[in-house]
Design a protein that fits this description.
single chain, 179 residues, little secondary structure, three-stranded parallel β-sheet, 4 helices, flat
Length: 179
């Protein structure tokens, strides 16, 4: 077989239908659109999911769940992964250097999963169980969580000083019979 002898398998290629090109083509007159109706008209289409005015399915079903945008920023590290590390002072840079957390992680949290027998100094966030395991093995956790940002206090608008002399309620009305 040569390159100039290659051809597609029989039946795999077929000519496209040229619709609306006369009765002899088999696709003349209505050109495959049928008789009348919205789909037969030019410009006769509706948006995807439109159900003729009925409330569409995607609006009938409830919304569920929430995917936080910052979910991948904090990486989880198991205590068993700390066992295999060579460093004794473990911070985010050391975890990235040993490729335990992804390069793009902004923070890491150690969780209790597996054993830890060696003494380490941890400088990232740790769960209560992981903290107890590390301190039980003779290590320590030196992570000081930064204080939360102070909330901005909303200033209350001062009310405008009211008119000193308010007109009495009956002012402006004509006086009735006074006896």
């Amino acid at each position: 077989m040569k390159l100039n002898e290659l051809k597609p398998a029989p039946g795999s290629k077929s000519n496209r239908h040229r619709v609306g090109r006369g009765m002899a083509s088999g696709w003349g007159k209505t050109a495959g659109r049928g008789h009348k109706g919205q789909r037969a008209r030019s410009g006769g289409f509706h948006k995807v999911g439109f159900e003729g005015g009925q409330m569409p399915l995607h609006r009938r079903l409830p919304k569920r769940g929430f995917t936080p945008l910052t979910r991948g920023d904090i990486a989880e590290v198991r205590t068993s992964e700390l066992e295999g590390m060579t460093a004794t002072d473990i911070d985010l840079a050391a975890l990235k250097a040993e490729k335990i957390v992804p390069h793009g992680a902004l923070a890491a949290k150690v969780i209790l999963s597996g054993k830890l027998t060696r003494k380490i100094t941890l400088k990232v966030k740790a769960s209560k169980g992981a903290r107890a395991l590390i301190e039980g093995a003779g290590g320590k956790v030196d992570f000081n969580e930064p204080p939360p940002a102070p909330k901005k206090e909303k200033k209350k608008k001062e009310k405008k000083p009211e008119q000193a002399e308010e007109a009495p309620k009956g002012a402006g009305k004509p006086a009735e019979n006074q006896a």
